[in-house]
Amino acid sequence: MSNITADKEKPSDQSDVVNTDIVARIQNLKKSFGDMQVLKGISLNLHNGENLVILGRSGSGKSVLIKCMVGLLKPDEGEIEVLGYNVRSLSPEKLNEMRQQIGFSFQNSALYDSMTVQENLEFPLKRNLQLFDKKELRELVKTALHDVGLEETSKKKPAELSGGMKKRIGIARTLILKPKIMLYDEPTAGLDPITSTEINELILNVRKKYNTSSIIITHDISCAEQTADRVIALIDGQSKMEATFDELKNTKDPALAPFFKY
User: Fold this and answer.
1) What is the extent of the structural domain holding 44?
2) What is the number of domains present in the chain?
3) What is the 3-class SS of the chain, one letter each residue?
4) pLDDT in tens, the chain (262 residues)
5) Residue 11 lies in a domain
């Protein structure tokens, strides 16, 4: 469990968190791979301080959406604006500048197996900020590990960590650069229900302490229920419904019914 006090209220009850400032805007986004059309005109806004869940089954285009958002994939059509940057028109230098303000929590945690946890967390500080002072590096790593409840792991290698611990370390490595936007790619995939709940609580606590705006892509209905201020249901590359979790749960749309058979 994280050392940060967990929020007990559902995110949708936190009216002071979400405001009307838009930090990311996507309009009519389309992306195909050969003859397979993955995204079919997706539009969304992410508001400052908001946790926006993109809910969809495997292959529905969720990961493609956020990869287009950070310039890892080039869309066929559509507009993407993130933190004031027009993503599709950015030079490599400006794209890197934007990415340094975005934290990307990968599904597999993306840790370097040959490095200790300490070295894994130091890596983005050295690469992106050119920070090499040993004392400062130790303090920043200590703080990041404290914020995910894993201070004691600094000398361990990833192979010595559980799946849930790897997820937390991956989030810590992202937080160490103090991003404005967090992108979580299937944060609870492969985890048991108890560990999944702990990761969901951590996502809420990260938002509270770091004042992040977040997009959480998941097929886990419990993750959506616990973390979302707003949910977009992505069905076959299209936005089927945009609503609060409770509104989504109470809809009679048969396309959404399979998500709630638990």
Assistant:
1) 21-260
2) 1
3) CCCCCCCCCCHHHCCCCCCCCEEEEEEEEEEEECCEEEEEEEEEEEECCCEEEEECCCCCCHHHHHHHHCCCCCCCEEEEEECCEEHHHCCHHHHHHHHCCEEEECCCCCCCCCCCHHHHHHHHHHHHHCCCCHHHHHHHHHHHHHHCCCHHHCCCCHHHCCHHHHHHHHHHHHHCCCCCEEEEECCCCCCCHHHHHHHHHHHHHHHHHHCCEEEEEECCHHHHHHHCCEEEEEECCEEEEEECHHHHHCCCCCCCHHHHCC
4) 444 434 434 454 443 444 459 999 999 999 999 999 999 999 999 999 999 999 988 878 898 999 999 999 999 999 999 999 999 999 999 999 999 999 988 777 789 999 999 999 999 999 988 999 999 999 999 999 999 999 999 999 999 999 999 999 999 999 999 999 999 999 999 899 999 999 999 999 999 999 999 999 999 999 999 999 999 999 888 888 899 999 988 887 888 877 776 5
5) no
Looking at the domain assignment, is residue 133 inside a domain?
A: yes
The CATH number covering residue 245 comes to: 3.40.50.300
pTM higher than the cut 0.70: yes
